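Researcher: Structure prediction, please.
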Amino acid sequence: MRKNSVKNTRINGEVQRVLAEIIRGEIKDPRIAPMTSVVAVEVAPDLKTCKAWISVLGDERAQADTLAGLRSAEGYIRSLLAKKINLRNTPQVTFIQDQSIAYGVDMSKKIDDVIGRDQEKGGNV
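Model: Predicted structure follows.
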C-alpha cells in the first residue's frame, strides 16, 4: 500500500476524528487541558503504529501536563479506539506535541514588531 493512498488517508482522518472524541469526552484525567486538539494523525501502512500531533492552548506547564496525561492513558485510549474503529490492527498511538500554532503566533508577533518599528522610523510599508 502506498503511503498516501486513498485508504490510508481515510484511515488517518477517521483515527483523528475518533481520537479527538476520546480526548474530549472519555478521558477524565485532570492533567489534560480542556482546549486540547488533535492536529494531525499519521497511521503506518501496516496499521501497527500511529503518530498523533497534539496542540494544547495554554502555557508550557499545561502542555507538558497534557502530554504526560495522554501518554499515561495510551493503553486506555487504544482500547477505546479498538471499540470505535473496526481495523485489522489497532495502532499503538504515540502522542507528539505540535508547536506549529505557537510558532505561527510567534512569527506573526515578530512581523508586527518589525512593521511597527519601520513605521516609527518613517518607512513605507
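Model: The chain has a mean pLDDT of 87.
Researcher: Thanks, that helps.
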